Every structure is written in structure tokens, then in C-alpha cells.
Amino acid sequence: QVRLVESGGDFVQLGGSLRLSCAASGNILIIHSMGWYRQTPGKQRELVATATTGGRTNYAESVKGRFTVSRDNPKNTVYLQMDSLKSEDTAVYYCYADAVDRRSGTVARDEYWGQGTQVTVSF
Question: Which residues contact 31 (CB under 8 A, 6 or more apart)?
């Protein structure tokens, strides 16, 4: 199994910056894609930014030019640098991983989620 642990969520002023981190642990063979989603009350979880092992990135249109996702593959860690934060960025941010891991003597590919970290953008 794979466990994801996020950190870095905080209160931040409008226009400020924040950096989120997520570390994956377990019997990991490879993480094909890793990144971030976010969710607010009454809405479905939406993609923020993801990155493949090869470095290809995918961003939500609303965060392009403001957020940057990056990975440290040897450490199985993904980061999200958030700049020029807006009130609409307030949400619980969840780490995501599409990973292949050792499981009961075999291997399996599955999606994994962290517990989430709160980001609140205030005046």
C-alpha cells in the first residue's frame, strides 16, 4: 500500500504565497503521476496540477501562471508552489498519486489520496 502525507496548508493573505508538500511512502515501484486536487464544500474534487515521472505537467486553467508543481522522484515527493493567491483558491488540497506498488507478493497499480491540508486565503 501507498500512504500520502501532505503538509504546508495555512492561512495566507490575498496575493500571498504558499508551498505545499506531499511525501509518499510504502512498497512503491513507480509513481506514474503525482500531484494535487482541491475541494470546497458543495463541490466535487477538482484537478489543480499533476506531474508525470517524466516531467510532463497538467494544470487547471484557473491556476496556470500562478501555481507550479514539481517532483523529487527519488524521494517520492511532490510540491505545489502557490503564488498570487486568490480567495477562490481557498479549499482543502489533496495529494494524489497513480502508483505501482508491491502487494501480497505481486504488484498492483492504483490511485491513492492523502488526508488533505487546508488552505485559506483571507483579506
Answer: 24, 53, 73, 76, 97, 98, 99, 100
Backbone angles phi, psi at 6, to 5 degrees: -95, 160
CB atoms within 10 A of CB 104: 6
pLDDT tens-digit profile of 54-107?
Answer: 889 999 999 999 999 999 999 999 999 999 999 999 999 999 999 999 888 888
